[in-house]
Amino acid sequence: MATPLNIERQKVEANIRVHRFNPEHDRAPYFDVFKVEVETGMTVLEVLQVIKETQDSTLTFRASCRSSICGSCAVRINEKPVLACSTQVIPTLVAFWKSSITVSPLKGLPNIRDLVVDIDPALEKLSRLHPYLMENKEWIPETLEHESLMSREELKTFDRNTDCILCACCFSTCSAVSVDPGYAGPFSLAKAYRFSADPRDSFKRPRMQAAQDYGLWSCAQCRKCITVCPKDTRPAVAIQRLRKISIDDGIHNTPGSRRAKAYMNDVAKFGQVNKPILPVVVNGPKGWAAVEAEEGYLRKHGLTHSLQAPRLPGQPHVARICQRVRELTQNMTKKRTALRPSNEESKPHRAEEEGIRDE
């Protein structure tokens, strides 16, 4: 006989600090503290529902599926963006060595009331990046008798990004969003990558231009979005790949693309980035001001300024690595094209089907 599991259930009294704000009569946000008896397995969303039902019916928050699918219950727990429906209270208390947790709304979005934010500004930016497929007539079959197929390798390039639930956790934690109001945000650019990488799409160039306009190169690659994403879609990786698509698509005359090319070329040539002249390479003549300021600072301290970085001892080996990376990238592209299924393979065997029906 199987030994029954002995699961120890805990009960603790926790202090739940909840952000409160009602624009009708509050000049500024404040925190209310509620004492709640929490059991093993209880989520933050369940605790909020208990508070609303038993202590304060005016508490306002969003929730829908309770299954980590809709993304509407996203809040910050002790400053970290999470889904309230999938975050258990007791493990959170243990992780922070506290008897209380703080629940607050997402950052970077207007606070409507209590824990509810207005996500429309973020979705408006998403809409500017054309998050939909535009039919590629060279790829999509002309009739409904054939399917539009792609290889497994092609699907793998963007399959992870299809899991995004638009919860805005990444938007809330993004450093670039906090300093640049025009930046589209991680999930918007990740969605742009998802559709640009899809071989059935024909709207890549306009989408790439829109991505440039909404901060494709503003991402600092701090990776915070990867840390907080509840579905592990890795927006920062998608943004990296979107940058590569924009360069491969011929969009070279931007500061970001010039910086990326300079990094690759300098590492192959010197074994390191040629930082002294980098501002000029990236920003053109405007960059000389930064170079002159650096030269003046070094001269003030008795140091000599050079516009060329020295070659490091291992530079030839690094150059071979860079060349190998370029070759592998080209081979991967050719492999994906070769593995692409033909639309002929998707034709239904109508004659056989009709024969079966006749029988």
Kindly name the structural category.
Answer: alpha+beta
Low-confidence stretches: 346-359
The gyration radius over C-alpha positions equals 27 Å
The end-to-end distance, rounded to whole angstroms, is: 54 Å
How much is the average pLDDT? Answer: 88
Helix fraction, binned, reads 40-55%
CATH class membership of the largest domain? Mainly Alpha
Describe this structure in words.
The chain is an alpha+beta fold. The chain folds into three domains: 12-117, Beta-grasp domain (Ubiquitin-like (UB roll)), CATH 3.10.20.30; 120-248, Fumarate Reductase Iron-sulfur Protein, Chain B, domain 2, CATH 1.10.1060; 255-336, no CATH class. It is 42% helix and 11% strand. It has 15 helices and seven strands. It has a five-stranded mixed β-sheet. Helix 3 (120-128) packs parallel to helix 7, helix 7 (186-196) runs antiparallel to helix 8 and helix 7 crosses helix 10. The longest helix has 24 residues, at 315-338. The radius of gyration is 27 Å and the shape is globular. It starts with 10 loop residues before the first strand and ends with a helix.
Keywords:
two-stranded antiparallel sheet, disordered C terminus, 15 helices, Fumarate Reductase Iron-sulfur Protein, Chain B, domain 2, globular, alpha+beta, Ubiquitin-like (UB roll)
Task: Write the topology of this structure.
Elements: E1 11-20, E2 30-39, H1 44-54, E3 74-77, E4 80-83, H2 89-96, E5 100-104, E6 111-113, E7 116-117, H3 120-128, H4 152-156, H5 169-173, H6 175-179, H7 186-196, H8 204-213, H9 224-228, H10 235-248, H11 255-270, H12 278-283, H13 288-300, H14 315-338, H15 350-358
Parallel strand pairs: 1-5
Antiparallel strand pairs: 1-2, 3-4, 3-5, 6-7
Helix pairs in contact: 3-7, 7-8, 7-10, 11-14
